[in-house]
Every structure is written in C-alpha cells, then in structure tokens.
Amino acid sequence: MVVSMTSDDSSVRPSVDWTPRDAGRPPDATLAAMRAGFLALFEDEYHKVVRFVMVNGADREQALDATQAAFAEAWLLVQRRPEQWEAVRDPRAWIRTIALRTYRRPPDRRREPPTVLRSGPDETVWSGQDPGELTAQTLHVLQALRRLPEGVRTAMAFHIDGFRPVDIAAELGVTDQQARDLLKKGRKILAREADVIMAKGRDR
C-alpha cells in the first residue's frame, strides 16, 4: 500500500491504494469505516505528529521518518489486525507515542516501514512554515522545549497538542497527578527561560 501526499490545492490530502486483498469480496462496512478514519487521522495529524517528534529532539528528517513509520504501523493494524486498531483508545495519542518510540529506538533496531508515505513539495510542519524558515521566536520556543528533561518534554509536547493531563498520564504510564507535576515543572522551566531571554534583550 502506498500513501502519497499531493499538492493539488492548499490542503494536504493522502491518496491511498484501497485494493482489498480479495478483490472479489466487497469490504466489510466496519473495515471501510476504519479505513476512512485512518485517512482522516493522516490528513489531520500528519504534520502535527512531525512537529511533536521535533519538539522531543528530532531534526526534521528524523521526525518525518518516525512519523511515516508510525502511520505505516497504524495502516498495518487496520488491514491485518482491525480488532486491535478498533481497541486503540485515542488514535491521536497512540500515533504520537508510536512515532516517538520509533525516533528513540536505536538505529540498528529500526525497521523499514512497510508502507511508503510520500510528501508533496508544499509539505509544511509549523503552521504553514517550513522548519528552515521558522521565526526567531518560534526557534527559541523549540530550543527551550528540547532542553527540558525527557519526561517533562514529552508531557509538554502532548500538552501543546491539546491533550489533557489524564490523557498524558495514560500515554506516559504515570498517574494523573504525576502528569500534572510534569506539566507544572515544564511551565516553571520555560517561564525561567523566557525571563532570561527578555533580560538579555533589555541588556542589548
């Protein structure tokens, strides 16, 4: 199965070969719904997942590779183990966790993704901006996030993407209170970093 991203318009839409294994049998309605859900997830979350992995320390190419591998794994579940995909509590959180796990996996243990995700020339990651053209302010924020301790950084990355402490706790395998503590610590560190940056600006 090949997923390609075209640039026919301003939106990024995946094109997927939906040929079923048994071409003579119409797809089950539930499986068809799962496929539609996968497409929606891909379209809505692809660039956000790339950004999420970048916040956690990856460069752009590493983040793209990890994101592609995560969506490939999701597609395999939809195709081969649909009951497992149906049991995923929150696909948005799941895809981020898998992408981050892939990025952190030692290079010699990374598997080549069985699905190829190709990106069009207008691919973007940060709200319409290429990472090479980020504003100085955005780069400061990204660098500050990357300097956070690993657990704090991951919690903040989930928080930035709109996840609640209870959702963050479920993905990190910690209690709700521990997730809140991680977010609190992250906010304090970032606030101190902001104060330092502002002080440097006044001294110039």
UniProtKB/TrEMBL annotation:
<protein>
    <submittedName>
        <fullName>RNA polymerase sigma-70 factor (ECF subfamily)</fullName>
    </submittedName>
</protein>
<keyword id="KW-0731">Sigma factor</keyword>
<dbReference type="GO" id="GO:0006352">
    <property type="term" value="P:DNA-templated transcription initiation"/>
</dbReference>
<keyword id="KW-0804">Transcription</keyword>
<dbReference type="InterPro" id="IPR036388">
    <property type="entry name" value="WH-like_DNA-bd_sf"/>
</dbReference>
<feature type="region of interest" description="Disordered">
    <location>
        <begin position="106"/>
        <end position="130"/>
    </location>
</feature>
<keyword id="KW-0238">DNA-binding</keyword>
<comment type="similarity">
    <text>Belongs to the sigma-70 factor family. ECF subfamily.</text>
</comment>
<dbReference type="InterPro" id="IPR039425">
    <property type="entry name" value="RNA_pol_sigma-70-like"/>
</dbReference>
<dbReference type="InterPro" id="IPR013325">
    <property type="entry name" value="RNA_pol_sigma_r2"/>
</dbReference>
<keyword id="KW-0805">Transcription regulation</keyword>
<dbReference type="InterPro" id="IPR013324">
    <property type="entry name" value="RNA_pol_sigma_r3/r4-like"/>
</dbReference>
<dbReference type="GO" id="GO:0016987">
    <property type="term" value="F:sigma factor activity"/>
</dbReference>
<dbReference type="GO" id="GO:0003677">
    <property type="term" value="F:DNA binding"/>
</dbReference>
<feature type="region of interest" description="Disordered">
    <location>
        <begin position="1"/>
        <end position="26"/>
    </location>
</feature>
